[in-house]
Fold T-box domain-containing protein.
Amino acid sequence: MLSMEMYPSLTLGPQRIGDCFYRDRPAPAHMPMFPPAACDMAAKALPQRMLPPPPNDPTTKTPKDQVKMELENASLWKQFTTVGTEMIITKKGRRMFPGLRLKLSGLNPSLRYLVLLDIVPLDNSRYRFQGGAWQAVGGAEARLPDRVFIHPDSPATGAHWQSRTISFHHAKLTNNTLDSQGHIILHSLHRYQPRIHVIEARDVLRWGGGQHSFVFPETQFLTVTAYQNNKITELKINSNPFAKGFREDGMNSKKQRDARQKRKICDGTETLDIVNCDPCDSTDLQPQQMTSATDLQALALASLPPMPNPSCGFRPEEAPYQASLIQEQPLDLGQAFIASHMSDIGISMANGMQDMPGSEVANLIEGSDTQAYTSNFPAVQANSSFPLAPLPQSSFLPVPDSSDTSNPQTIDYTPILSSSPTLSSSSNTPLLQQTTFTFPTPPPSNSSSPQPLLSSSPSYHTMPETISPHTPADASFHAPPSQSGLQDQISAHSLLNDQPLQGDSISSASNSPIDQSSAVFIYPNNLPVNPAPVTALSNYNLPLAPSLPCSLPTHGTSFSFPSVSPHMQSFPNMSSNPSHHAFNFQNLSHQTQAFPPSSFPHPSSLPHPHPSFQPSSCLAVPSSFQQSVSSAPSMPPTAYPQNLANPSNSSYPQVDISGIPQFNPAAHYRPEMVRHHPSLLPQLDPSLPSNLPSSNPPQSLYSAFPSYPLRLCQDPHPSLSLPFRHLYRQHQHVHAHPQGSYLDMSTRAVY
DNA sequence: TCTTCTTGCACTTTTGAATCGA
DNA sequence: ATCGATTCAAAAGTGCAAGAAG
């Protein structure tokens, strides 16, 4: 279960940059960025074009198959996942607990990387905690503009990231759709999956093109405004230091609170010891306190219902509503919207910020049971005592089954425990490295094919964002008939993929229904246990993987750099290499598409195209998928360079940013400047039915979760010193509708 | 009426400034 | 004057519970 999925869904395309800050001509009065003011400023300040990385630069290539990410506190996450992780969201923003504590390896120590966190919906359902279990009760709320939290240390060298624990404990979740603090906005009672993205930045002004995305299925959670499952509350109290007061021996424990209440009632002036006020206090103390990690785990395990019949958690099989396909939601930095700190990047870089000790390193609140995912995946199989999960036999394209409406969809977290090899024995933690891709978000689950919520498939893949144009198309991946009028959009998008780097064209096809390759997920409704292999094939026409009709075309791939500090100009690379005097997003335009797993270059995959699918009991990969994988010719490891040199990228001439006023470090960015522009919200789509028959299960408010491009935006707040902190991923071309929204590839959101 | 969300409360931890002494 | 250790207070993070809102 401790699976780390890597998928090159990050799409950073220069073609979209021009839409924002980089234009062929001097910045016009209006920039399609938000906030407009900041965008205009940035547009005037930034170079007109982004430069691609130096062609055939071996140093720019980071072997993707070597990049590994470990979830340090995986066991803690597993404890929560077993019960059904709930995350409190508040208007002011709430930190995540457990937090994401990660270890990175395999990075080029000398190269710089950005580490980003985004959280994407797992399905299109809204949940309710009933009868001790979470049940899908209707369609999800309209998706809000996605935000991405950029680790404060970003950008930093690979040595920096690898020398310490990477923690995102500063990231906050909020349900305030108007949040201006840069928190990640989520809907309550929805299921989400955090994703970690590692983006290579050759230097301050150049994106190296290396993109790595990781998903830890055990980190998926349900958002709530108040804890629904008392087991989660118990776990949180016993695990979170800030909640110590609520423990049995804490001053804010139930006992103490009752005592205080009693004291208030009796006599407000009484000065009795609150402990003694409780008649049962001194003699009722529990001998053991669940404070240690061992105790916590014991607690979690003890509190778990019987495996076969979990008393709590999700029960997907009971879901009344068919989870519609959730498209992979690639992180599109092309539309990245940086809320703040952009101006500080240059300074930080110049000062060697990457060497600064991360504040997160000291964070030891959470356990450090690191789960390593390396190329030793086969070991999982050997060590795994869990039976293989039944592979979906259904077709790739999940079809909503109205008959299932009678059965509320519930999600059972319990299976994850058994399915996770690491949980049983951390020492035997399988090292997983795969050459296949998994989808960040599972396709809609088929109620008829219930799968464990967290099918703990130890399939964590390291995939190159790009593959060789010679990558054979896998017949097993067939794009489902497009629906909802998206066909044209998709088609147009496919055409664009052929020329991803041309001007303002929308290059990314990562989110096309194809991309989702949902076909590989028979159901999941849970994390891609056995995620379908996905890779960036934006520049190549590959067979479209089956996906739900809701699948939407990918987002644009523009990446706008609001500002660059003058310090950047002094950056060694920049000075030494004139070509570096420009932002390079060339390689960030990788497109994610479903493709045969065998196409992935990892050597280990050659003998075993999908070793990850075999060992884990949670592998929900359709047999057809595996077959296709095995049948697909193996691709040479070197066939898919991380940085795919694309001559077309050179269309962006070098730009000397020196003298650009906006690069002044004095320019600051303020989160408050980032607000939800109306245009960012889904627009009503008159073409879609406004009402659904009451007899039918509630439809998702949105047909699918298209990829939402990121937009970078300057944050003029002077007080913020953290560089590159937030990216706001905004909906692009999304038409909201009471029942859903869809991407409009023909138009582009203008902020 | 029920469910969900908001808000205030009490508690804890974290953080940074202030203080003190070597 | 500098440095390190200690103290203190403010800020921030918790869950709980009552009440409000839909």
In short: The first strand of chain A starts at residue 5 and ends at 6.
